[in-house]
């Protein structure tokens, strides 16, 4: 067997460059890894940095400005590719590595693939301790990278070069397996990165990865079909797993053939077009009146590719009268419904279920009611998002701004991608944003990570350079992480960024008061101030300082005009607008459990506690509950 002598780092990069995937739409063979984000330091510049330079023609390296941001961009890239393509991220040791921890948790929660390659301390321990090394007084093998063990789906520390022969195939298995998918961390000690080994040439042969679809067991399909045949009021709730399985057509077919209305989660939004007559809109805490009314009255809920997170289930209080049938490729998630589980790929599972149902159809009256409620909800969305003129002295709120951004679409912009993550906007966008195509709505709400938005928008643009990417975020998220505006300008990857400035953390301020608390430490006006008082932040000036074009607007009309200029620009364009933090979309929504103190001197807290205890009586105590269906 022929061999080639390479350093560990050179072998790693060469292996990554050889991984391929077949594009299901075009049939084209593509590299699995779209590139490597890198911020170099003494823990990776000499080893991995030299290897990346050698292979820069086959595997591009992108420089970012913040480690967490570049990992978020890599995760967004994978999400935009429906987990079929991904990126790697490398940092130095110490703070460069630990800056990745938030992103690793984000990828883990959202079941998204990213390969993390933090530098590590010397295995030889010759210069021990090195700069930035954390010393554990009771364990000499520990480094800060051990923190990644709990937020990685697979973790390994490469202490001898030849360990890559087993570690890399295992890493690829996790990154490409629908059930295991999540972050992989390979910690790379800096001395081992530079050590040479005689590698078998075959290890670097191109490897084409197929994304296997798990077939459902016939007994599981039969049980799920029987539960639906016994149902009179079924509802399907689709999550991100339906999108990743490219199951949009299967969802639409099951809905139409069998008269089952469809609700969606944050991750599943876009699976079924917003204008489909059986599209109820979002379920749960950020849900529509249509979806939540039918879910509260449903006798069977078919949960497809969803983690059944508390926002989807109304903290397990929403599906009061329903049996839960889960269809999920991940056994851990499938168990959450507690009733009937179908362990399968969403597309194959739905196709098999539809076949098993045959000519069965939900009650016509249920379908009629669903269609009427769905249309009424679309009318509500129209009314909210069409407002242009506001009373003098009234600031717009998120819903009205969403309407203006949506109106900026033309036929050539039908495939825009909106990106968001945290604060008030996720609720408003899930309710009000109209999505026609799978992938047109990119929300990170599994981890709800403030600061994801701009970096995530960059990753989406890298994945879909032909589409306009619109990043919507609040001032709080912008201030947490905005540095990748400079990266987008540097890479020539244009983003349209709309900053809604409500001068603080408006979402949590409202939650604070809903729990009986006094406004405190959330809005800038409610914080302790120094001699100069509340800062006046000019977001447009800040963005211009990083190379973007930017402007501040004062009304919906000005926003619409600015969006025309932003569309025409060839460079990242930021628009800032002041908003009212007190107004939100009142329609829709459901209870969400946030605990309230049992004891307080405040009457408002006591009242909120009474309401909380009343609401908890509707909560299902545990999965596998008995039902009155």
TrEMBL record:
Residue limits of the Thiamine pyrophosphate enzyme N-terminal TPP-binding domain?
Answer: 36-132
Q: Where is the composition biased (Basic and acidic residues)?
A: 605-614
**Which UniProt keywords are given for this protein, alphabetically ordered?**
Thiamine pyrophosphate
Q: Where is the Thiamine pyrophosphate enzyme TPP-binding domain?
A: 422-576
Indicate yes or no for the key word Hydrolase: no
PROSITE patterns in the record, alphabetically? Answer: TPP_ENZYMES
Domain called Thiamine pyrophosphate enzyme central: residue spans: 221-353
- As recorded in UniProt, coiled-coil segments are none
The UniProt annotation puts the region (Disordered) at: 605-629
PANTHER family in UniProt: 3D-(3,5_4)-TRIHYDROXYCYCLOHEXANE-1,2-DIONE HYDROLASE (PTHR18968:SF9), THIAMINE PYROPHOSPHATE ENZYMES (PTHR18968)
For this chain, the family text in UniProt reads: Belongs to the TPP enzyme family.
Q: Which NCBIfam families match?
A: myo_inos_iolD
Q: What is this protein called?
A: 3D-(3,5/4)-trihydroxycyclohexane-1,2-dione acylhydrolase (Decyclizing)
Q: Which organism is it from?
A: Dyella nitratireducens
């Amino acid at each position: 067997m022929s061999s080639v002598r390479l350093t560990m780092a050179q072998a790693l990069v060469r292996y990554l460059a050889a991984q391929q995937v077949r594009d299901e739409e075009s049939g084209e063979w593509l590299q699995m890894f779209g590139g490597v984000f890198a911020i170099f330091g003494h823990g990776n510049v000499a080893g991995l940095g030299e290897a990346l330079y050698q292979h820069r023609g086959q595997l591009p390296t992108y420089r970012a400005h913040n480690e967490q941001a570049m990992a978020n961009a890599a995760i967004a890239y994978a999400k935009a590719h429906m987990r079929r393509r991904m990126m790697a991220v490398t940092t130095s040791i110490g703070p460069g590595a630990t800056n990745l921890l938030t992103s690793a948790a984000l990828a883990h929660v959202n079941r998204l693939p990213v390969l993390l390659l933090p530098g590590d301390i010397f295995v030889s321990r010759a210069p021990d301790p090195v700069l930035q090394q954390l010393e554990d007084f009771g364990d000499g093998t520990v480094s800060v990278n051990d923190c990644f063990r709990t937020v990685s789906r697979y973790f390994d520390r490469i202490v001898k070069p030849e360990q890559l022969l087993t570690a890399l195939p295992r890493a690829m298995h996790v990154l490409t397996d629908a059930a295991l998918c999540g972050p992989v961390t390979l910690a790379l000690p800096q001395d081992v990165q530079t050590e040479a080994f005689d590698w078998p040439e075959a290890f670097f042969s191109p490897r084409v990865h197929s994304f296997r679809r798990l077939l459902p067991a016939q007994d599981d399909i039969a049980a799920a079909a029987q539960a639906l045949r016994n149902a009179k009021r079924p509802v399907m709730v689709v999550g991100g797993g339906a999108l990743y399985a490219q199951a949009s057509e299967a969802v639409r077919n099951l809905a139409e053939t069998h008269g089952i209305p469809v609700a969606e989660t944050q991750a599943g939004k876009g699976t079924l077009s917003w204008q489909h007559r059986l599209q109820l809109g979002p379920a749960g805490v950020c849900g529509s009146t249509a979806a939540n009314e039918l879910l509260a009255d449903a006798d069977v809920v078919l949960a497809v590719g969803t983690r059944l997170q508390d926002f989807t289930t109304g903290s397990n209080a929403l599906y009061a009268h329903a049996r839960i049938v889960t269809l999920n490729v991940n056994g851990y998630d499938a168990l959450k419904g507690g009733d009937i589980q179908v362990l399968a790929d969403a597309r194959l599972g739905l196709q098999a279920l539809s076949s098993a149902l045959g000519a069965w159809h939900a009650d016509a009256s249920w379908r009629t009611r669903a269609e009427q409620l769905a249309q009424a909800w679309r009318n509500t969305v129209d009314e909210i998002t069409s407002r242009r003129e506001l009373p003098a002295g009234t600031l717009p709120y998120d819903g009205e701004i969403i309407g203006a951004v949506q109106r900026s679409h033309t036929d050539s912009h039908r495939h825009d991608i909106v990106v968001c993550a945290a604060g008030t906007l996720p609720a408003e966008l899930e309710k009000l944003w109209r999505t026609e195509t799978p992938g047109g709505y990119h929300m990170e709400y599994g981890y709800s990570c403030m600061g994801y938005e701009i970096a995530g928008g960059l990753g989406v643009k890298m994945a879909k350079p032909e589409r306009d990417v619109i990043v919507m975020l609040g001032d709080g998220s912008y201030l947490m992480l905005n540095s990748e505006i400079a990266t987008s300008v540097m890479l020539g990857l244009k983003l349209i960024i709309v900053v809604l400035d409500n001068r603080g953390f408006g979402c949590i301020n409202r939650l604070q008061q809903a729990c009986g608390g006094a406004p405190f430490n959330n809005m800038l006006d409610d914080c302790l101030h120094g001699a100069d008082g509340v800062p006046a932040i000019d977001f447009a000036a800040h963005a211009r300082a990083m190379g973007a074009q930017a402007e501040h607007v004062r009304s919906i009309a000005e926003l619409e005009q600015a969006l025309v200029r932003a569309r025409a620009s060839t460079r990242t364009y930021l628009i800032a607008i002041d908003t009212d933090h007190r107004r939100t979309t009142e329609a829709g929504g459901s209870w969400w459990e946030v605990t309230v103190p049992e004891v307080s001197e405040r009457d408002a807290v006591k009242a909120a506690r009474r309401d909380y205890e009343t609401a908890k009586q509707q909560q299902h105590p545990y999965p596998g509950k008995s039902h009155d269906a």
